Amino acid sequence: MHARSEAGDRLTALGTQLLEVHIWLREMLDDLQDGIDDYFDGNGLPPRDLRAHCLSFCTVLTRHHTGEDRAAFPAIAEKFPELRKVLSDLRTDHNQIDWLMGNLRKLLDSLPEQPDPAMAAKVREEVGALSAVMQTHFIYEEKKLISVLNSMDVPEWRDNRPDFLLVDDDA
């Protein structure tokens, strides 16, 4: 019989997969920020494409957070009850991020075909706020949960990865 590590049996440890998803989400937000900057500089995507990009990003981030709230956090709380306060704090962040995404979507829905310099500061402020909260949230979550997730083996997640671990290629 050939001995293998638990992490090897899972191919990629769950915490490492979470980090990969966070990197991908950060890149998606950077692309959205670049698109917004290009639009206001007069050489970017039309507003409908920015809205579509925002909707795509927001949908993926919501899917990720909903998956954490419904699958990952209950599994972690069961195995590591001492982390319940951390998980509660992360859920609070999810609600704040959702609210910020709603504000950004409303602003992008109101963009005119031609850039309005009067709107630029407000849109950039809103995407900056979303980015700051998201980055802080991800750093805190990674610090508190990556090693915990890497230590876990959830058999039902092996062949059917939960939403919080999905990236575009998986969707």
UniProtKB/TrEMBL annotation:
The lineage's top-level taxon is: Bacteria
- Family annotation (InterPro entries): Dimeric_xanthone_biosynth, Hemerythrin-like
Under what name is this protein listed? Answer: Hemerythrin domain-containing protein
Domain annotation Hemerythrin-like: ranges? 18-147
Instruction: Please name the Pfam families in this protein's record.
Output: Hemerythrin
